[in-house]
């Protein structure tokens, strides 16, 4: 594996990009189609870690799977390295060598009948690797923090701790020398004592390899610790995005404010959102968050003169690049007053 000399920076062309992305699923028994991803622009630059944050059911996992080519887009497009994603079998196989998925549950990701060696070597065999397989597996395990790697070759998943299993999953991704990984809740199933180790590992891999990452999570605390940028998703659309320090120290969208308020170190009382996110087959008019919005419920939006817009005027899709952006009538009114 070679180490790129520089990490990505502002102005660098994106490595992976979603442009006006839509993913819909058929409704049951003739019901309206569910708009799981309902217009998303999102860029990930070389060497950059982007956190995609939101509640369960907001569409973030569907978005991540669409970026991987596992779920075809029904509108818009995905581009990688400047080229639109090709959904032919041959092209997707080549693409998935460069973009790897790391799943939430390492126990479910690993075949209990396969040794650690076979689990890590599987990708090499699928892609017809012609080099020294044993050396490649050993290097990937070592990079993932399992040293000496030979000690783990003949072990089975049940013989490992949860953190060790997650490192094996990461090694299985690294062995193909990807340019980007998509990590879906990578530490959600781990003990608190192990989470920091895995996050530190991902940061080290970014530094050593120039690896880009999209980290899908419901945890804004995790985003704070690992990400360069954060994109907050609600009901199929990104509602706030920007540099992680800016968004998480001065959140402008009421939804972001509510998510941050429940963190243990957050000042003030937690914001308790009423109800569940709406059905994605029946997205409300206006701001899609307005039915649960604490700003609208408290009368602040009315005093700012935007309550009617919140209920009736849709907001545009936010741009996918850098810079702080928010899709909220009230937040924008605060800037202009």
Automatic annotation (TrEMBL):
PANTHER family named among the record's database cross-references: D,D-DIPEPTIDE TRANSPORT ATP-BINDING PROTEIN DDPF-RELATED, TRANSPORT ATP-BINDING PROTEIN
Official protein name in the record: Peptide ABC transporter ATP-binding protein
Record's keyword annotation contains Transport: yes
Top-rank lineage group of the source organism: Bacteria
One GO term (biological process): peptide transport
GO MF entries: ATP binding; ATP hydrolysis activity
Pfam families: ABC_tran (PF00005), oligo_HPY (PF08352)
Organism the protein comes from: Streptomyces albiflavescens
Coiled coil segments of this chain: none
PROSITE patterns: ABC_TRANSPORTER_1 (PS00211), ABC_TRANSPORTER_2 (PS50893)
The UniProt record lists the keyword ATP-binding: yes
